[in-house]
Write a structure and sequence with these properties.
about 90 residues; alpha+beta; four-stranded antiparallel beta sheet; 2 helices; globular
């Protein structure tokens, strides 16, 4: 599965959690996706997967979700994109 990271951001919430948004496109899928990553300590991460704009085929989002679950390197790349965006934002401040 070819996953292309289009954009990433991350912020620290009032309750000190790190919440990132990563927008991805998957070759052959009809719609792009938004992946929300969340961590209290920047070590243990959870995520939620959504269609970015319009809904697409449920089997496509399910396939991406399963792929992320099965390929830790892909999830790490998604998290790293959000971390990089957070660091770049801190450097600009």
């Amino acid at each position: 599965m070819q996953i292309h990271i289009e954009q990433a951001s991350m912020e620290r919430t009032e309750d000190k959690r790190f919440v990132g948004k990563v927008y991805v496109r998957v070759e052959g899928h009809k719609q792009p996706y938004e992946i929300i990553v969340d961590s209290k300590n920047m070590k243990d991460w959870g995520y939620a997967l959504y269609f970015q704009r319009d809904s697409g085929p449920e089997e496509e989002i399910d396939a991406l979700d399963a792929y992320i679950d099965e390929h830790e390197d892909v999830f790490e790349r998604i998290v790293q994109a959000a971390k990089d965006a957070y660091q770049e934002g801190k450097e600009r401040d």
